[in-house]
Amino acid sequence: MGRIAIYKLVYHIAHISKRMKTDYLIVGSGIAGLTYALKVAQHNPQQSLTIITKASSDETNTKYAQGGIAGVMNFDEDSFSKHIADTLIAGDGLCNSRIVELVVKEGVERIQEIISWGAEFDKDLAGDFKLGKEGGHSENRILHHKDVTGKEIERALLETIKKCPNIQLISHCYVLDLITQHHLGYLVTKSTPDIECYGVYILNQLTGKIEKIISKITMLATGGNGQVYRTTTNPAIATGDGVAMVYRAKGRIENMEFIQFHPTALYEAGVKGHSFLITEAVRGDGAVLRNHQGEAFMEKYDSRKDLAPRDIVARAIDNEMKINGTEFVYLDCRAMNQDNFKNHFPNIYTKCLNAGINVFKDMIPVAPAAHYSCGGIKTDEWGRTSIRNLFAAGECASTGLHGANRLASNSLLEAMVFAHRCFVAAIKQIEDLSFTEKIPDWNAAGTTAPKEMILITQSLKELKLLMSDYVGIVRNNERLNRANRRLDLLHAETELLYEKTAVSPQLCELRNMITVAYLIVKSAELRKESRGLHFNTDYLQREELIQNTIL
């Protein structure tokens, strides 16, 4: 971090520490958090907004979204009804149809809005949008900026945010917990009516001090939880913090069993953690999946072949790897137009070259990696959670759009639509709110500095390993039972460490990830069927059940 950046950070933190109050608090600086903040700030320049993020301001899941945004932009060939139908089919019967309709229909206006804020999407020579096609979509409707769509959106939003003087964006501050009646000395349980959020406790990573930020309205846009798994397309920050905090605050969480594994992450021997994503749009442009015998295998699994929904493609790849005893399959791009590939996927082309892969001569080794959580913090159609004055949007939220499986490129669309809806509800709600006074300071009495970081890092390795081996693409009841038993031990050890040790981002992230892992396993145990992204070999799939019933 440069001297100027440090000075700005010190200034911002000193400013917020002195004031300690903000009308609106946003946790997370991805597409959902920034869109919401921008709308609120422009609506009322006199009100204060504070955005806090635990890393740099642009280090978000949004930044790593390659494919694009799904939206009906060509009404001559596409329609709302087609996009709605595709989303419902992908969701395998668990989507909220009302939510699907409003997201699809309101999404077009939100796309136009983000374009007005400076986001640029690829166009052809005639000036029309180049609309891509991805798995599960019946028409070309994906707007993209080469293969770095999320990064372009993040750039445009951050540049626009800088023009709003009433927005304070603070990086490198880790949120420890939501402040509720529990911190005022009241007993709060899952059955407590009207739990309220008054703000958050944060760990200032620059000073090491724990502060409190009091807010009238709090918005969680904390992203996903892919780091729970050994291999993921998510950045290191995706540790499920928002979901874990809401669960501890006794808020409602749902559908955590539906973890989407992206079928095609670049396989690099020995590389664990953050895997490089090969966007589905590559298959949409003609790439073909092949096994180690060179066979195009997807036709064995689905009539849509390589453009089947992600849950089907991921399971097909997983099965091919098990049949052949390999750790990856191949994505064959050799027959694709070279100029088009370099223009549309420059980042992928360069990454592969750096890994020694010429995509026009060599097939790309790929394997599934944890990618997206379809469940999360339960919200209503306005982004309100079960905790009063607390909103959620983006990947941390469960809005009802995705059901049992997310349709490709619907996530950025959902984030924008629900950021707007959170804004509409929040500006009405804040009129009747005031700051809650006498919030106690964080109690760190009796804690000491950690003696051995190995206690945290080893537990993290164990967590990722057990989740990948027991709660991955294919599950069964015995694996889930084993995962549960091991999680109990990790939880007990980590809670004991948390009670004795001064908090750190590493310890808090481990604690949050254990909580998220527990929620995934418990949700998977409770679902006595195979549906969408939850594939349990002890239960038949819905299609098989229907066929057996007919027979």
Provide an overview of this structure.
The chain has 551 residues and is an alpha/beta fold. It folds into three domains: 1-258 and 374-443, FAD/NAD(P)-binding domain (3-Layer(bba) Sandwich); 259-372, Flavocytochrome C3, Chain A, domain 1 (Alpha-Beta Complex), CATH 3.90.700; 454-502 and 504-536, Methane Monooxygenase Hydroxylase, Chain G, domain 1 (Up-down Bundle), CATH 1.20.58.100. The chain has 15 helices and 20 strands. The chain has helices at residues 3-19, 31-43, 80-90, 97-116, 149-161, 241-248, 281-284, 310-324, 338-344, 346-354, 411-429, 454-470, 477-500, 505-526, 542-550; strands at residues 21-27, 49-52, 69-70, 142-143, 167-170, 173-179, 199-204, 210-220, 231-232, 253-254, 259-266, 273-274, 288-290, 329-332, 364-373, 376-378, 390-392, 397-398, 474-475, 535-536. Strands 1, 2, 5, 6, 7, 8 and 17 form a seven-stranded mixed beta sheet that branches. Strands 11-15-14-13 form a four-stranded antiparallel beta sheet, with helices on one face. The protein has a three-stranded mixed beta sheet with strand order 10-16-18, covered by helices on one side. Helix 2 (31-43) links the parallel strand 1 (21-27) and strand 2. Mean pLDDT is 91; it is low at 1-16 and 545-551.
